[in-house]
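Good morning,

Attaching, inline, the backbone tokens for the sequence recovery test we're adding to the shared suite. The designed sequence is right after.
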């Protein structure tokens, strides 16, 4: 059976089952029932347990961990290198914001059966929909470039020229998505990116000043400088990226999840956000302990130094494998989120389980973004500057998408009883306003700088 054919007996949530009607089995697992003397005992089958574990790594986990990509690693490492532990309290706040936003995104997807772009098109004017899509495409295009640049930098650490590997990586990622094996490859990318689990260990073995770490985690130590503000917005952009919300909502829809699946999708979204942010915080701590105070990073080799307490001379090798997995994962997720958004807004077929002839616009948009991203990644540019710059752009665009998400989840006409309650509404509003204020402050400072007024 080809990967495009559907098997009615396929377990829900399995790669072959995505995007197609299916018989529903509660909880994504099968069960065997045995009658014993003491009554009826429910025993999960081995196959059911396997699919349950695979289902945990759903759109929420994938979207959140795609944020720990090449640009994310560079931004977090630069925060530790440049400002040591000062950004840790800020990251705690950003973690809280990401949990709220990811939960709202999957709640919209599961309860409406529609992605964010489709909901924006239905609930707002065509002009406002156009603004949202323009912002997404603008930010995502730069991000796709950074992902392929990250793949190139990772292989350069292994002695392979980026001019050779980037075209190969682009073709491989494109083929995995277009020919239907992406769901399997997604697991491989996640496994490779688990190399970054070495960061929590490195944060411990690097012997940081734990008193300073604890103090900076619970008490703000902000610097009122443009460089700190710039990096703060970059941290927002790489942690609460618009593409993550677009992908999370579209992903649960593509898997056929509905309101009954919301509890599991909620756990997926929250656990993914927390896991990704814990890794992010330990990247800052490990880098600060290793090279804190040196100033901004200038190369991938410097970023790899934080892993020396774990891997010693093999630190660059470990960093390279993690960077390959994270960049490849995001190299597929980012253009897919753009393709989902545009296709949803237009109202055409969008699913990675469809053939090219069935979803021409969706897969065509994905193809164009991969080509542009790989081509621009081959141009000579400082990698770290590119990576952090794309996150600043993401940070400026993020408030636009968050405002739409907040309004949609507040509307009972959209979510009914699942709409935001009073407490959740206040908390989400505070997060969106705070993120928007930082982005506007950076934008205003930059404009005034160009005019020579700041």
């Amino acid at each position: 059976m080809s990967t495009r054919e559907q098997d009615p007996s396929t377990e829900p949530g399995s790669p072959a089952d995505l995007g197609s009607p299916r018989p529903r089995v509660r909880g994504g697992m099968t069960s065997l029932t045995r009658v014993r003397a003491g009554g009826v005992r429910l025993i999960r089958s081995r196959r059911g347990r396997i699919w349950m574990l695979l289902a945990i790594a759903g759109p929420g986990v994938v979207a959140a961990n795609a944020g720990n990509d090449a640009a994310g690693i560079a931004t977090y490492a630069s925060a530790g290198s440049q400002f040591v532990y000062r950004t840790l309290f800020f990251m705690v706040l950003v973690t809280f914001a990401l949990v709220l936003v990811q939960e709202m995104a999957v709640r919209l997807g599961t309860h409406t059966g529609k992605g964010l772009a489709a909901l924006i098109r239905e609930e707002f004017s065509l002009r406002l929909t156009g603004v949202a899509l323009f912002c997404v495409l603008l930010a995502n295009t730069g991000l796709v470039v950074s992902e392929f640049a990250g793949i190139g930098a990772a292989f350069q650490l292994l002695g392979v020229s980026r001019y050779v590997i980037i075209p190969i990586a682009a073709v491989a990622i494109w083929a995995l998505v277009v020919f239907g094996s992406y769901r399997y490859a997604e697991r491989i990318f996640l496994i490779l990116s688990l190399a970054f689990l070495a960061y929590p260990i490195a944060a411990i073995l690097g012997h940081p000043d734990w008193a300073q770490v604890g103090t900076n985690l619970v008490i703000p130590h902000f610097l009122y400088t443009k460089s700190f503000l710039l990096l703060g917005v970059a941290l927002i952009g790489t942690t609460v990226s618009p593409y993550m919300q677009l992908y999370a909502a579209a992903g649960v829809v593509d898997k056929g999840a509905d309101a009954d699946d919301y509890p599991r999708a909620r756990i997926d979204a929250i656990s993914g956000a927390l896991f990704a942010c814990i890794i992010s915080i330990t990247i800052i701590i490990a880098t600060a302990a290793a090279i804190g105070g040196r100033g901004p990073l200038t190369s991938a080799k410097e970023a790899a130094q934080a892993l020396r307490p774990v891997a010693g001379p093999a630190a660059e090798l470990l960093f390279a494998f993690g960077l390959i997995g994270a960049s490849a994962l995001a190299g597929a997720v980012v253009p897919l989120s753009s393709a989902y958004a545009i296709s949803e807004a237009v109202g055409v077929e969008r699913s990675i389980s469809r053939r090219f002839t069935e979803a021409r616009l969706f897969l065509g948009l994905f193809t164009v973004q991969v080509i542009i991203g790989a081509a621009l990644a081959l141009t000579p540019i400082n990698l770290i500057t590119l990576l952090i710059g794309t996150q600043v752009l993401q940070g400026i665009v993020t408030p636009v998408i968050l405002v739409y998400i907040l309004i949609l989840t507040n509307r009972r006409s959209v979510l009914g009883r699942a709409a935001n309650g009073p407490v959740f509404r206040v908390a989400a509003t505070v997060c969106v306003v705070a993120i928007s204020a930082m982005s506007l402050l950076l934008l205003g400072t930059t404009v005034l700088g160009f005019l020579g007024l700041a």
